[in-house]
Automatic annotation (TrEMBL), chain A:
Coiled coil: none annotated. Residues 243-382 form the Thiolase C-terminal domain. GO terms for biological process: isoprenoid biosynthetic process. The lineage of its organism: Archaea, Methanobacteriati, Methanobacteriota, Stenosarchaea group, Halobacteria. Keywords: Isoprene biosynthesis. Residues 8-220 form the Thiolase N-terminal domain. It comes from the Archaea. InterPro entries: Thiolase (IPR002155), Thiolase-like (IPR016039), Thiolase_C_2 (IPR055140), Thiolase_N (IPR020616). This is 3-ketoacyl-CoA thiolase.
């Protein structure tokens, strides 16, 4: 089995932009290949994560992104798992490189979420939920996660204030991330006083609707060593994924079992334990997710996931010293659905190669990414990355 | 496989999977329109699946049977959809809940009550409504959904 390495990353600006999806992709690609030969000289296939054709009425994203990258007659596929599409693109690229099918593959993700306004995004995202009983009840993304949050607050000691602290922490982290959509801190009272979206979730408990794209180049050792110095590559040490039920009602509302399976599989693949993870980007589409995923990743004891906001020394017994969502997370960095899993990889790449600037975690050698699609663990992809 | 008293306990045969079988969505909603809420029950591990499906997600067995469900249950979690998809705009804000029926089957649905009147542990009863009476935008329905009833919970 070949080793898969991330050798370059790029991302577009995140937020509400004037650029259509393909141009956002061009931005991400241009950054990733700034110091590399042409994409056609490096990669021989691509995967693109894209949640919905409803935003821009465009499918065939694999073909389109290949054209825009200057690639012709290569395997080029769109993958879809709602918000987990980006990590799924990465996983497929890693699988191909490991298997020797390709020497280098481009994993990319793109979503132009603002094209149809708030109504367009609400309707497009609604398609991620079970049709017969959930969609036909008028459910939305914030509401499905609110069902998890309400139960979590009922079963644990956590309060709405604890959830708000997660938003405050992630905005604080985003303030030192030049890639983030919201580069400003917010205070606890602002979060607590914000408008209800789906109780107990308020405005700042929810990741924003975001336009954006990301690109990650995955290559085997030979290509990696041809292209760059060893310390500039990050090894993809482990991957795992799992699908749980589609309907939120048919799952455990306070323990995301599928995410635990995905993370455990990735740990085993990489030969690491949760305690080995220095930095983690977990899917905080809503603040409660960060708490649930800290527990599913086995960083935190059951019911104590809300302590992601505390410094390692101040957390409950049984917690690891991991730093979570140094990028600002989906919450504050932004959440362009199909690109999100790859934006997690961008942050981990920068942390593990010492490029994270003010938010650099000292001696960060091992990272975990958790990217979810549908509500919570309807589909989860987990990835372990290691510095060289 | 056309009635809801089936004792099927083995894998469905291709001929069993028809639009009048409650193991398909049309058959499930036909039964619901007639006032019968049915779930699949796994005869191996007793998992209940709503709507019914041909295999158990709990243990993987295809030995499933159809079982009529109690219409009463308990709110497990709840929230409010303040900005629903456009087809449901006129119903906003929508109170929704995850309900565990007295059989242990679970499903999500609207609750015909304001958010302040609902809490975890509340008893609810399933009501079946004609889609026209709910007045959901007709464009929302797929061709095969037009006559499917809408389920709603009422506090009891």
């Amino acid at each position: 089995m070949s080793t898969a390495n991330i050798v370059a990353v790029g991302a577009s600006p995140l937020g509400r932009t004037d650029l259509p999806g393909r141009d956002l992709f061009s931005k991400a690609l241009a950054e990733a290949f700034e110091e590399l030969p042409d994409p056609a000289d490096v990669v021989d296939g691509l995967y693109v994560g894209a949640q919905s054709e409803r935003y821009e009425n465009q499918i065939m994203q694999g073909t389109l992104m290949a054209e825009w990258a200057g690639l012709r007659n290569v395997p080029a596929e769109r993958v879809e798992a709602c918000a987990a599409a980006g990590a799924l693109a990465l996983k497929n690229a890693v699988r191909d490189v490991r298997a020797g099918v390709h020497d280098a593959v481009l994993a990319c993700g793109v979503e132009k979420m603002t094209a149809g306004g708030t109504e367009g995004a609400t309707n497009a995202l609604g398609a991620a939920f079970e049709r017969a009983l959930e969609q036909r009840s008028g459910i939305t993304a914030p509401a499905t996660y609110a069902l998890l949050a309400q139960r979590y607050l009922h079963e644990t000691d956590a309060t709405e204030r604890d959830l708000a602290k997660i938003a405050v922490k992630n905005h604080r982290n985003a303030a030192s991330n030049p890639r983030a959509m919201f580069q400003e801190a917010v205070d606890l009272e602002t979060v607590m006083d914000a408008v209800d979206v789906a109780p107990p979730l308020k405005l700042y408990d929810c990741a924003p609707v975001t336009d954006g794209a990301a690109a990650v180049v995955v290559a085997n050792d030979e290509v990696a060593s041809d292209l760059l110095d060893r310390e500039d590559a990050v090894r993809v040490a482990g991957v795992g994924s799992a699908a749980n039920n589609l309907a939120v009602a048919e799952r455990n509302l306070t323990y995301v079992e599928g995410a635990n399976v995905a993370a455990s599989t990735a740990y085993e693949d990489a030969g690491v334990d949760p305690a080995d993870i220095d930095v983690a980007e977990v899917h905080d589409a809503f603040t409660v997710c960060e708490a649930l995923l800290a527990e599913a990743a086995e960083f935190a004891p059951e019911g104590r996931g809300i302590e992601t906001v505390e410094d390692p020394g101040d957390r409950s017994a049984g917690w690891t010293d991991v730093r979570i969502n140094t990028s600002g997370g989906l919450k504050a960095r932004g959440h362009p659905i199909g690109a999100t899993g790859l934006l997690q990889a961008v942050e981990a790449y920068e942390q593990l190669t010492g490029r994270a600037g003010e938010r650099q975690v000292t001696d960060a050698d091992t990272a975990l990414l958790i990217n979810e699609g549908g509500v919570a663990d309807a589909h989860t992809v987990a990835t372990v990355l290691e510095a060289q | 496989m056309t009635d809801t008293d089936s004792t099927t306990t083995g894998p469905l045969a291709p001929d069993d999977i028809t639009a009048d079988s409650p193991f398909t969505l049309p058959g499930f909603f036909d039964a619901l329109a007639e006032g019968r809420l049915v779930a699949a029950r796994c005869t191996e591990c007793d998992e209940h699946m709503l709507p019914p499906r041909p295999a158990c997600y709990g243990c993987g067995s295809r030995a499933v049977t159809i079982e009529e469900q109690p219409r009463t249950g308990e709110v497990i979690s709840y929230t409010s959809v303040n900005r629903p998809p456009s087809a449901f705009d006129h119903l906003a804000p929508i109170t929704v809940a995850v309900v565990e029926l007295d059989s242990s089957a679970r499903l999500t649905g609207r609750v015909d009550a304001s958010l302040e009147d609902v809490t975890i542990g509340d008893r609810v009863e399933l009501q079946v409504r004609d889609p026209e009476s709910v007045d959901i935008d007709l464009d929302f329905d797929l061709s095969y959904e037009e006559d499917w009833p809408i389920h709603v919970f009422e506090l009891v």
